[in-house]
Fold this sequence. Notes:
The structure holds 2 protein chains of 2 kinds. By secondary structure, chain A is mainly α. In chain A, 50% of the residues lie in helices and 6% in strands. Chain A has a domain of 144 residues. In chain B, the strands form 4 sheets. A 7-stranded mixed sheet of chain B has the order 4-8-2-11-12-3-13, with helices on both faces. A two-stranded antiparallel sheet of chain B has the order 1-7. A two-stranded antiparallel sheet of chain B has the order 5-6. The longest helix of chain B has 23 residues.
Amino acid sequence: MKAGTSLWTVTAITVLAATATIGYLGIERSERDRAPAVSGGPASVRLISADQYATAVHDVFGEDTKVEVDFAPPQRLQGLLALGQSAAAITPGALDQFDRVALAVAQQVTDDRHRGIFVPCIPVSVVDADAACAKQFFIRTGRFLYRRPLTNAEIETQVEAAGKGARRLSDFYAGLTYSLAGMLTSPKFLYFIETAEPDPDNSGQLRLTNFSKATRLSLFLWNAAPDETLLDAAEKGNLDNADGLKRQIDRMLESPRIEKGVRAFFSDLLRFDQFATLAKDSTIYPGFTIQVTRSAEEQMLHLITDQLLARNSDYRDLFTRRLTFINATLGPLYRSPVLDAESWTPHEVSPGQSAGLLTSPGFLALYSHPGKSSPTRRGRAVRENLLCQHVPDPPPNVSFAIFDDPNRNFKTARDRLDAHRTNPACAGCHKIMDPIGLALENYDGSGAYRTTEGGAPIDVSGELDGKSFVDVAGFGQAVRNNPALVSCLVNRLYSYGVGRPASAGDRPWLDYETKRFGSEGYRLVALLRDIASSEAFYAVSVDFDKHRGTQDARVDRKEE
Amino acid sequence: MFKRINRRQVLRGMLGGTAVTVGMPFLECFLNNSGTALANGRALPVRFGTWFWGLGMNKEIFVPERTGADFDLKEELVSIQPVKEHINLFTGYRTFTDGRPSLCHYSGWVTLRCGQAPTDRTSVPGESLDVTVSDAIGGGTRFRSLEMTATGNREHSYSFRSAQAVNPPEISPLAFYQRVFGPDFQDPNSPVFHPNPHLMVRESVLSAVLEDSASLKRSLGAADRARLDQYFTSLRDLEQRLALQLEKPPPAPACRVPPAPTDVTTIGEDAALVAQRHRLMTDILVAALSCDQTRVFNMGYSESYAATTRAGVPSSHHAVTHEEHSNGQGYQPTHSWFIRQAMKEWAYFVGALASVREGDRTLLDNALVFAHSDHERAQNHSMDGIPMMTAGRAGGRMKSGLHVTAGPEDVGTQVGLTVMRAMGLQKREWGFGSMKATKVLDEVLQA
Lengths: 560, 447
């Protein structure tokens, strides 16, 4: 690569890094020992996600309750759907969906098969109201659905609604059904509404209530509402002291539910919601079926949890490791048959051919066209999803005259993308994205390995932010060692947890935590523990309207 | 209002815990002679909808040479021939961003739906015009509005109150069918009417929810309060719609309950698959309209970055618009193939609405559909002359079958303003800045 190009790229990256929410240079400044104080953000109001809804229902009413939560995802803000949840409102159309699901769930809970399990008492008469029995049901159920004990007035509301319904329909359980459906339609269930209270230790300051702390913690670590133990701890006020909080965090990190939480975070970070609509051209990639899509997504999650939880290993090595897992569906893509149709088998990718997660068929296929690879999409995905760098919008009114010349015959993606360099308006951004994507060109649009395209050999050499490489393994190494990889993870994980974008006031603490994460061997579990135990995680500001106004909205956009 | 409450109270009294049948005589002759009103003098509903397709057109083979009623159809638009008389075509209308960024595949359609350009990709400058129309005419039916997309992707909605308050579209024809014609459907022409006591209970529970959660807002900041307000508005709307279903619905003579559609995968945007979903959902929508289940609808054929695919073509439609060479005639042939598929579907949509008779008229005559795209020439993201069309006559307030071209001072929001006026909204102007429209397009409004 020419010196001029490389200089330009470095300049471009510097500009990009400056716009990123957290600058890596800040790391050097921070102190090692003491955590910088943060001003905190507003208490958040988050709309429940489809996954969180299903989990809540399954936790309270058992796994076999059918929950068809096909809610549209919220807008992705600053790279995360989780932040969109903190901004999402409910339109009549959206409420219709919640209403339908609520009814369907409530009907199952009280049907002949389940009422014996979930209703803790037998009504005096099944054809009439029974306030005492309804009360027992709502006290217990309501505590989980509202993530706190119900007030007397709330209990009264539910019992009265159940009673009215029971009398009108001459059916105790029907009354219970509709009253429960009402709870599931209430904003107290559909929104995670945090509340703050005056902080007795710091006059004039606010702190989250114990129950709000419990919910924030539980969403962060488990992507679920608090369980009974956590609610008990909150009720006793134990989350206000370091020991009590630590006990809960330790317990939650050791629980198998942590895997769900980690999967949820990485699914959001890596935009796995796109798998739901991923399809390939069946004439070009006949093998890429819906089953392949599902397996490819699962494989990536498997890789992530194996690296970060089962092995408790360095996050950065996710981008260099050669060991993956394949099943019978993915076997053909790896030219490696798997006989057992049900299980995942460890599989070692050949030396020089792996950039870990980035050479998973899921990543490669997600960021491709229906019938060919897309170095540009792949490059942008790495920059935006993993390095938290913002790639600017394509300029309007670009001349595409170069593509209008039918005499040009591009064999490889590199040939095609080289054409961008003749147009300065395109070159700026494509130089940021394309070298990354070109490093992955040994994998086609379905994620299958190849060495040639259009009969011409594929050249995957390049450089990433000043680090050059000759093969995809070298590229993986360059991603691994890119400082933005780590600061990006810390920043995203933190804002995912607190339910708001990281602000300038959070930066010193994020710098500090990024450094600490390094000293802990870049182990995710340590990072989760650090964040969950930190004061920063629970800090709330007094003037939330003002704070909200100063958040700079960052731009996300659709593909290409 | 008072009348309704009294009637409900009466019904509640009559029910006394068990369902009863309230006999309602079925009138053979529902309509007056001209088909403009029900025999009881009540006007037939006028419906409003939008239809969206992505990536514009190839001007050379799309824009007619002639204007007025005698406009010619070139090859990219030829498939609308059978429904040409029902359609107005608007070409050459410009879209300005007034110093805001020109966001590819976003600024154009947002401006045409909201009256001004957005400031960034995560925001919209206001509600989409279907919501404005829905606020005026959308009450009084079982659904406030119905949204559908043929793309299989729930994120492809073009109907919203704000960027964070979006009306989610149906993606599955079968699920859409079940939502409209499932167990909760009440045939408006059924000779007997059973007020459903379960609906009454549900409605009363929602009132309790509303009361119970009203105090939540007190402790919130302004932005979250506004979000909660949006929730409460939606909840009240749902409650009112449930209440409405406790009354005998007015007769809908054209109402025919269609058979359930075949299940079709929601994954993938192969043009044939998209067309299949589009037609199935169109048929359900038309039936829903004929049964007066809603008066506002939004159909997306493709999305603004349309990722529609064609078997054997490695790139999806959007990428094709940027990669494909122009042919000898100055347009991109594969891109044009995709646009022709879209126009075929638009013709199907219009034809389906026109196929339902309501007296001397058709459902389409009693409707107005506003269709548009996101760009004029997608290859270079041109927003000058984004193609727009209308279909239907808005119950006689709109003419059809005309090609109208923009004058030098005209802007795209004039079509939106005209459409809203045709729907009976008393709007003198619409839009902001250079996109503020004050002049309606008189040539398409019925004097």
